[in-house]
Design brief:
Layout lengths: L4 H16 L10 H9 L11 H7 L72 H19 L3 H14 L4 H13 L3 H14 L4 H14 L2 H14 L3 H39 L1
Length: about 280
């Protein structure tokens, strides 16, 4: 007999619910399952006694006249006790709180994102001529020289000029993203990296700049994906160390927390269905 995988998953959730709250087995609709467990020698917790609580809630009984006594005038009924009956204790719900548990992360070096700068992106509709491409390469070399001299603002300006001549060069956007990363401007890095990857999905530098920018923003899962993609294109030890020591551990903690939250929601839905 083949059992559907979906049915097995539902049965697993139901058994977990019974383990957390065995009183569910006293649900009248589960009588068949309770009898089956008893035939297998299982021990089922007894249903909580309600007689004592009911006795405490009963009002005081009126005095019964003694036998063989002369009839007495009918007395007015005694007023009912003003004492309110003690409500039955509400069973404590299972731990299905919707509040997210705090995830302890290593947020060392995380910064607040900046506003996007008004940087040249070139005309994406332009079809560069050979002269445009040659001019873009010439300006790119000047930008690389300024970058080597740590003249970052000049390098950013020159890369923007090169983009005006050739807006379809992924290298130009990736190199500017690298400079912006050195300036700790992660939002602008992400923008340039995304543009570079739209032009060349295998640009390793763009992937790695994007991943490091996400790391500065505390977006650990996005950072892990981008850095891993960059490593597949061009492996280097420094990026691997960053992944191993900080990014991947934080990303895994977030993934586990999300899986736990999803499981809690499924369990809560099952409990509500059983109570209906």
């Amino acid at each position: 007999m083949n059992i559907d995988g979906k049915a097995l998953a539902q049965l697993k959730v139901f058994v977990q619910a019974c383990q957390m709250n065995p009183l569910l087995l006293h649900e009248p609709r589960l009588a068949f399952f309770r009898e089956y467990l008893l035939t297998m020698g299982a021990t089922i917790p007894p249903k909580p006694a309600e007689t004592e609580a009911a006795a405490e809630e009963m009002p005081e009984a009126e005095e019964v006249p003694k036998a063989k006594e002369a009839p007495k005038p009918k007395e007015a009924p005694k007023p009912k006790s003003s004492k309110k009956p003690t409500p039955e204790p509400t069973p404590e719900p299972m731990d299905d709180s919707s509040e997210e548990e705090a995830v302890e992360l290593d947020n060392t070096g995380v910064i607040e994102g900046e506003e996007l700068m008004d940087l040249p992106m070139g005309d994406s509709e332009k079809v560069p001529s050979q002269e445009d491409e040659d001019k873009a390469d010439e300006i790119r070399r000047q930008a690389m020289s300024a970058m080597s001299d740590s003249n970052l603002e000049e390098a950013i300006k020159l890369f923007g000029e090169a983009m005006e001549h050739n807006p379809h060069s992924a290298v130009l956007f990736a190199k500017r993203a690298q400079i912006l990363l050195r300036q700790k401007k992660p939002n602008n890095v992400v923008r340039d990296a995304e543009k570079a990857l739209s032009l060349n999905p295998n640009n390793a530098l763009a992937h790695k700049c994007q991943g490091k920018a996400y790391r500065l923003l505390g977006k650990w899962e996005e950072s892990a994906l981008a850095l891993s993609a960059g490593q597949k294109c061009d492996y280097d030890d420094d990026t691997q160390e960053l992944l191993k020591s900080v990014v991947k551990p934080n990303a895994e903690k977030l993934r586990q927390a999300r899986l736990k939250k999803d499981a809690s929601k499924r369990l809560k839905t099952t409990k509500l269905n059983l109570r209906e």
